[in-house]
Design a protein that fits this description.
This protein has six helices and 15 strands. By secondary structure, the chain is α/β, with parallel strands linked by helices. The protein has two domains: about 5-190, 4-Layer Sandwich (Metallo-beta-lactamase, Chain A), CATH 3.60.15; about 200-270, Winged helix-like DNA-binding domain superfamily/Winged helix DNA-binding domain (Arc Repressor Mutant, subunit A), CATH 1.10.10. A hairpin with a 4-residue loop joins strand 8 (about 115) and strand 9. Helix 3 packs antiparallel against helix 4 (about 195-220), helix 4 packs across helix 6 and helix 5 packs across helix 6.
C-alpha cells in the first residue's frame, strides 16, 4: 500500500485495479485527519478497503461517491459495513453499466456542503460521463476532486445511454466558473493549470465532433461502424470498441442539435 500526501488535508491511496478504462487504478482520496471524508472507495476489493481502514482507523466520518461506475463505488458498501460511515452520492438515471450494490444513506444534490472542523466540501453536479456524476470542491485549498469528469493522461469515455456528450461539455464549462488551483482526478496524478486542462478537453471534443460532421456531410449517409473507422482513424484499433461509445455520444449530441438524424441504424446529414 502506498499513501501519497498531496496537501496538508489530502492523502491518496490508489486501488490495484489498473486497466484500459482505469489507467493506473482508481484513486481513493482521504480528506482531513480527525474527521475523515473518503472520496471514491473504489472497486469491491477487500484489500483496498482494509488499506483505507488501516490508515483512517475509526476517524471516517462519511464516504462520498463521485458516480456509480464499477471502478468507483462498489467499495462503498464494504467500507460502510466496516465503519458504519454514511454513504453519500447520487443515483444514476439509467441503470446500464452502473454499480447495483450502491445504496446512499444520503442523496446529494448540487450545492450540498459537507462541513467539518478542518475543512468543507461542496458537491457540484457535473453530468456527462454519468448522469449522477459529482465533483467535490475542497474550498480551503481550491482543489477539486473530479472523479471521471477529468482524468490524467486520457480523455474519458462518454457511454450512452447514461453518458451524454452535450451535458459533459456544459459541465466542463461549470469548472471554469470556480476558483481552482488543482484537479485531483479519479485516475492519475494531481493536475495543475485547471482552466487550461478544461480548454484542452473541450478543444479535443470539438475536434472529434468536427471529424464526425465532416464524415457524415461528405457521404450523406453512414452506419456507426463506417463512421468509427473514419472518425477514429488516428486511434489504435484495439481501442476502437471503447471509442465507439464516445462516437455514439457525439452522434446523439448532433441529433439533439438537429444536424443529424437516424433511420434504421444509419445516420443522415441534415446540415
Amino acid at each position: 500500500m502506498k499513501i501519497t500526501e498531496l496537501s496538508p488535508l489530502v492523502r491518496r491511496i490508489t486501488a490495484d485495479n489498473g486497466g484500459v478504462f482505469t489507467g493506473g487504478g482508481t484513486n481513493t482520496y482521504l480528506v482531513g485527519h480527525q474527521e475523515i471524508t473518503v472520496i471514491d472507495p473504489g472497486p469491491a476489493s477487500k484489500e483496498h478497503i482494509e488499506n483505507i481502514v488501516k490508515v483512517c482507523g475509526e476517524d471516517i466520518k462519511q464516504i462520498l461517491v463521485t458516480h456509480t461506475h464499477n471502478d468507483h463505488s462498489p467499495g462503498a458498501k464494504l467500507l460502510h459495513q466496516r465503519t458504519a460511515a454514511p454513504v453519500m452520492g447520487m443515483y444514476a438515471l439509467n441503470k446500464e453499466m452502473q454499480d447495483p450494490t450502491f445504496k446512499a444513506n444520503k442523496v446529494l444534490e448540487d450545492g450540498d456542503e459537507i462541513i467539518e472542523t478542518e475543512y468543507s466540501l461542496k458537491a457540484i453536479h457535473t453530468p456527462g460521463h454519468a448522469s449522477n456524476h459529482l465533483c467535490f470542491l475542497l474550498e480551503k485549498e481550491n482543489l477539486i476532486f473530479t472523479g471521471d469528469h477529468i482524468m490524467d493522461g486520457s480523455t474519458v469515455v462518454i457511454a450512452p445511454p447514461d453518458g451524454n456528450m452535450k451535458e459533459y461539455l456544459n459541465s466542463l464549462e461549470i469548472l471554469k466558473k470556480i476558483d481552482l488551483k488543482l484537479i485531483a482526478p479519479g485516475h492519475g496524478n494531481l493536475m495543475e493549470n485547471p482552466y487550461s486542462v478544461v480548454d484542452w478537453i473541450v478543444s479535443h471534443r470539438m475536434y472529434r465532433e468536427k471529424k464526425v460532421v465532416d464524415a457524415i456531410s461528405e457521404v450523406s449517409i453512414a452506419s456507426l461502424d463506417k463512421l468509427l473507422n473514419i472518425v477514429y482513424d488516428d486511434v489504435d484499433k484495439n481501442l476502437l470498441a471503447i471509442a465507439k461509445y464516445s462516437l455514439l455520444a457525439h452522434l446523439n449530441k448532433l441529433i439533439e442539435d438537429e444536424r443529424v438524424e437516424i433511420k434504421e441504424e444509419n445516420y443522415y446529414w441534415k446540415g
